[in-house]
Specification:
Blueprint (H helix, E strand, L loop, with lengths): L5 E16 L8 E19 L4 E4 L2 E2 L3 H10 L4 E7 L9 H16 L6 H15 L5 H5 L4 E4 L11 E3 L5 E9 L2 H5 L2 H20 L3 H15 L4 H12 L3 E4 L3 E7 L12 E4 L6 E2 L1
Amino acid sequence: MQPIISRAFAPAHISGIFIIDIKKDPVLSGSMGAGVCLEDGAVTAVRPAQETTIKINGEAAEAATTLSAIEHLTAKPVLVETAVSVPICAGFGASAAGALSTALAVNEALSLNLTYNELAGAAHKAEVTNRTGLGDVAGMTCGGIDIRKKAGIPPAVNIDRIPCRNEIISWISFGAISTRSVLSDDMKKKGINKAGRLRLKELIKKPTVDNFFRQSCAFAKEIDLMSREVRDAIEAVEAAGGIASQAMLGDTVFAINDNGALNEFGEVRKSRISHAGAHLL
C-alpha cells in the first residue's frame, strides 16, 4: 500500500506595516499591521516516513520553524518537501509559508483530523517562538490585503481585509535582513511600534490599496531600515507613476504599476495578489 502523500499551498506574505506585540501566550502574540498575499509562495508535499526530514527546493534543511510546527501537531515522523518560489529572509514570509503549508499537509497525510485554525495556530506559535516572523501566518490564512488590529491568530483575533482585485505586484530583492536581529533590538522595536501605530491608524481611516502602499512607504522611511538601493528603486517607481514600498523585513521593493522602472535595478519578478489564503491542493 502506497503511503498517503498530501500537498498544500501557502501564499507569500509581504508585511507593509507592523507593530510588535509579544505576550506570554504565543497564540495572542505576534504583530498588528497590514500586508499582502501573493500567488507565489510555498507548495509542500508530506508523507509518512521512518524519520522526520525537511527538504526545501530539493535540499535538506534545518527549517526550525517548520520543524516546530510539526512537533506541535504530532510525534510521528514525516518527509516534508517544500518548493519555495520567493527569496528566503527577504520579506516574503517564506518561513511562515513553509510552516503553514506543512501543517495543512501533515494533517491530511496523517489523518490528524484537526481544524484549519488549529493548524494555523501551530504554524503561528512556531513562527513566534522561533522569532522568524510575527504576523505572516495570520495574513496567510485569509489572503488578499490584510489588516490586523490585534496580534495573534484566529479564532483569538479577527482579521479584516482591504477590498482589492488580483493586481500584479512587481518586486525586486537586493538581499536579506535578519528578522531575529531586528526583533531582539529594543531600540529598534520602540521606533517600529511608534511608527507602526501611526501608519496603521492612518490606513484604517482610508483602507484602500493606494493608501496601503502610501502608509507602508512612510512606515519604512520612519523606521530607517531602507538601503540606498531600496530608496532609489521606490523613488524610480513613484517617478514613473506607480506606487511602491519596502517589504518587511527584507531588502526588497514591491510595487504596483512600476511601468518598467524597476528593470534598471536588476531582475524583476511579478506575482498577482492571492485571495485564496493557504489551502490543500
